[in-house]
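dumping this here before i forget
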Amino acid sequence: MAEHSGWALRMTWRDLCFMHWPVDARHLAATLPPGLELDTFQGQAWLGVVPFRMSGVAPRFLPDVPGVSDFPELNLRTYVRPSRQQDGEGGVWFYSLDAAQPLAVRLARTLFHLPYFDARMWVSHAAGVTRYASLRTHRHAPGGRFAGAYRAVGAPLAAPEGSLEHWLTHRLYLYSADASGRLYRGRIHHEAWPLRRAEAAITENTLADRLGVTLQGEPHLMHAGELQVRADWLQRLE
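structure:
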């Protein structure tokens, strides 16, 4: 991938599955902090659960650290844009990010103001199938459980601009808020997602319960095998 002069953190995302459910836009909009508004696709809001494995996670100019740089991660996300900026680029808003690496959890909470939580996680990948389970253990955090299995199916998936697949995945900014409600935006850099359709069997999923949302029915599914990513430092939104 092309290098970018301002990046601060590198990582590789592996065996990732985008699991998206359509949800009520008015309900979801009420869960966002002041200064952000919900981004929708043709009027429809989407809530995503994304399990994957992280590897090679390290700050710029520092080497990978065995036992620290590789870990599973699971996030719950929707899509937003800043309401005070007419030219604000749409991006990702995370409700939770569970990870099985305590140091990564604390650094991300401190440096990127992201709602990372400690979790016990079990992941295996064999014969093209990823089996994934997560139990949130973070002290004083709301509960969150997920268990399921997924795999890629079919040929590489085209996601042209204007398609739902492009809208759900081509997100080059993340948004976050600190404890005082100040908003931040961070740029990420990567090549186009190597997408394929996916099949999944989800046996437990309580990640959205605290939002008053029950994720049920068949989700929209996409799989990506591996993607190298660079992340910039956050910038404060005025």
